[in-house]
Fold this protein.
Amino acid sequence: MTEKKRSKQHSPGRPRSEASRIAILDATVELLEESSYAELTIEAIAARAGVGKSTIYRWWSNKAFVVFDAFLVSTESTLFFLEEGSLRENFRQQLQSLAVTLNSALGRTVIGLVAGSGEESEIAAAFHNDFLNSRRADAKRIIERAIMEGEIQFTTNLDIIADMFYGPLYYRLLIQKKIVDSSFINTLVDQVMKSICPSQGK
């Protein structure tokens, strides 16, 4: 789900202001840290960002997608894999960063929107297409590198390993509705490594 599909088009001659966009997204994050999603309004976002409501509605159809875009921007500089390091350490640091993101007010709000929207909804599709797919592609690249470097067996199925790392985390968040902490991440990574590479599981 691209932003073009979920955002209203603005008229020619009124280019989207990057400064206004960032102000709107920053204001959204701040307001969610101060109150709840139910209390969040377009009026409040506009007032905090110093823009008119029409500016927000020109770019986003509703507050859910403002929140989701704020979430995407917040992950750009935090959720990444290292270009060096072992598979274990790469997933440990990436999943720790992911846990911090999803445990934040913004992350909890997005998870709540996805969990409560139904799998056919636009917000669920956006979460899958714009967030999960890119995370999964990066993860498979790192797993493939580990295979090429002989860290794990070359017969390993990339999708299954990605599911082993991410599946328990999302199950805990979406189904069990529990917090994911450092202890959980460390245990998860250790258990997966024991399964796919016993010699490095210790």
About this structure: Residues 42 and 63 are 6 Å apart (CA to CA). The longest helix spans residues 122-148. The radius of gyration is 19 Å. Residues 71-200 form a domain with the Tetracycline Repressor; domain 2 fold (CATH 1.10.357.10).
